[in-house]
Amino acid sequence: MTDKKQSIMVIVDGGYHPDAVELIKGIPAEITFKRISEKGCVDTIVLPELGIKRFLPINEQQTFSINTDKAGEYQFHCGMDMAYGKVVIK
Fold first, then answer.
1. Which residues does the UniProt record annotate as the domain EfeO-type cupredoxin-like (predicted)?
2. I need a labelling partner for 77 at 20 to 30 A (CA). Which of 1, 38, 64, 84 fits?
């Protein structure tokens, strides 16, 4: 994290590592997902409350800007709704 932006990397390998991401309210944030294997059903990431759904190609980074103006807990999951994680804004 810098003073102006929070950046988090989530490795996707049959699940999400880490599966819980904490962000500081009011500081702009980016979360990058990188799928490194074909294990599991995690080829799509869905953050329903944040309006994000995107395919995750193998070994490519997909970066999302996250609005951190509102504190809360936001779930994310794979396209089959079987692997889960969360974004917590404090």
1. 6-89
2. 1
Q: What is the pTM of this model?
A: 0.90
Q: Write the secondary structure of 22-50 as one string of H (helix), E (strand) and C (coil).
A: EECCCCCEEEEEEECCCCCCCCEEEEHHH
**Fold classification of 6-89 (topology level):** Immunoglobulin-like (2.60.40)
Q: Quick one: DSSP state of residue 74?
A: E
